[in-house]
Amino acid sequence: MFIIICSIIMIMDMEYRNIIVPTLERMGEETIRVIFSMEEMEVACLYYERAKVGWTHKPIMPQAWRCVDSKISDVTIYERGIVEPKELVGWGQELIKVYL
Question: What pLDDT was estimated at residue 57?
């Protein structure tokens, strides 16, 4: 029991970008899937689409991507305090800007 508790505390102290690995997958011209894995197991999957004019009343950039759907495979990443959902959404947007 002590070993398990110590390892969880060590993970919580680490920055989530060092233990979660993102993978980008283009699913079409307008859709991108970002898969987040930890210890070779998928923990979350976010789907992004290009922002459309009808989505908001504010002017948007034509190259903007917005998260439209998500699938969380392992909620323990939130329960253990490793990462917050909004951090994954923001990280996914950063990756798309850099690599696409």
Answer: 57
